[in-house]
Task: structure prediction
Amino acid sequence: MPIARRRFIQAGIAGAALLTLARWIDRPLAAGPAPYRFLDARGVKSVGALVPVVLAGALPADEAAQRAAVGEVVTAFDRAVAGLSVPVQQEIGELFSFLHTPPLRVAFAGLWSPLEESTPQQIVEFLVRWRDSPFDLQRASYRALTQLIQAAWYGNSLSWPSIGYAGPPAVG
Amino acid sequence: MAVRDPIREGLAAGWKVTDAAALERDLDLETDVVVIGSGAGGGVTAESLSAAGFDVVIVEEGPLASSTDFRMREREAYPQLYQDSSARQTLDKSITILQGRCVGGGTTVNWTSSFRTPARTLAHWKDAVGLKRTGAQDLEPWFARMEERLAIAPWGVAPNENNDVLRRGCAKLGYAHGAIARNVKGCANLGYCGMGCPINAKQSMLVTTIPAALSRGARLVQRARVLRLVIEGDRVVSCEAAGVAGNGAKPSDTRVRIRARHFVLAAGGIGSPAILIRSDAPDPGGLTGRRTFLHPTVISSAVMPRRVDGHAGAPQSIYSDHFLDNAPLDGPAGFKLESGPTHPVLVGITLPGFGEDHAAWMKKFPHVQVVIALLRDGFHRESRGGRVTLANDGTPSLDYAMPTYLWEGARRAYVAMAEIQFAAGAQSVMPVHEGAKGYSNLKEAREAIEALPMRALAARVVSAHVMGGCAMGPDARTGVVDEDGRHHQLRNLSVHDGSVFPTSVAANPQLSIYALAARSSAALARSLR
Result:
């Protein structure tokens, strides 16, 4: 068996065992804090830490405007996940379990601190590691996190002036 | 002047429409024919059978939304009108699948491109699959009928700049290209077809066949997911559906049960096989949900010197089959070239990368031009398609791995698209791939593309055409259904949608679905008399 494949299978088995552990340690809260439908309080913090990195150069420069924009992106991220199929919502829930369980976060994401305590540079390195990972699961997780954040921002009319989009035409 | 909304008018006039997600108790119905799904196949079937005098119930998983709801905003349209809010993906997450999930199905949100099934595709179905009555001449009257019904005609308006780049590039390089026929009446060239036509110009099922059927007394049960068919012996006796309030919602506990003489599956290339699998339908050939094809599509973005504004104007008006027609079916993978519209979310999630690099491309948004290459899958022995699988809760997914054969085609497609974009004057071209960046000339782009790893979740691959999974075949060994869409084992079950194709179509499939569904519906009406 090629080494890459064997490594992948081993990682898969280890991953499954760790996932069970993570699910047990990180039992989801009964309901997220209002107004969130999917994210729990830690998820809100994690996404809030990812947004300024994923959207660096795209968000408003003014500090208060940027804070408000990040808040809207986190809310739209939450709404978007709640609109995915039930099994995919569960998978994204598991992804956050990984990110919220210290030993797994270190092993799986290479992050020594929680996302909200990591520096932007550490978050960039984490995202690049996943983007360039040999494992499908990490590349897929990178894509899910970045695309959900990008969709949340560019679906918001706040982002449109900065990209030269005037919005949809008037009809009727 | 306010836009007329034929759906709201029909509801006011007393159409029989039930919202399954709002039911407080179970509902039992009886009818002649149940049509499961209201897209290209279901819409045509519902109109045809109701016109023939049969009582019809249409069951649709998505909502009955109409022009008043279509506000041309991505963040509203995608969750409302698409499967998984437009983020449906293959099992390994490597291919994003755009599929409609609303009354009218894909036809409510597609980009109106209309092609007859290519003659080579039909010849392959005859020679390699053994179909006997599905040749170009057999289908000619059905194509003509549906073209007339849906106002399908060559688009006479000048292409927008996004499409004109494709035209100019092909013209300069001597690649054959042409104007795309579209199913529109009174189109205002807005460019928002993918979010539901706000002026009802697109002749989708939502504004043509479904209103016709409902006006004749057909019933529509919307926001209802068919869980299973109840099978006794070689017959389907009923189907059972649950209300689903929207994307991401769990099915309700209330049930809609419908007894009927005949059942037509038209839930699309993932939905229809999934219902058969959930129903334990007989499948002696092991074919149900197998050989599912996607036209896997790779993308090339360019920055042009002048504004492109690819969100405005008909999304697809120019195509090139140069790389299909000059490629033998049993040789390296061929691909069809078209343009892809640029809307902020589509572009934002399609351009690879994040942070400053991504933001720099987004700042050029008005100048971004997009060419897409749809790979022809299912013809070559190495292209066997994917398989529909079910999660624990019965939710379907598609396990589709791109074979090396298609990756090789993807690499050539990236080069061909870059060549065309540079020939049309692009300042910079970026293949949509995690490892790519913008290149300023063809030589640089070509060298980079040769070195890019062609693998899942590195190249960004999308699909808007799910086909196969309930393939037509002359017998139970080779197909799930016969050439009239009749199931080989279940006497009163038919499939009328893109899942009956034995391979991909090698063109945008709506007109192929319309024509086959029209023919199958006429045959069904005769047999039910």
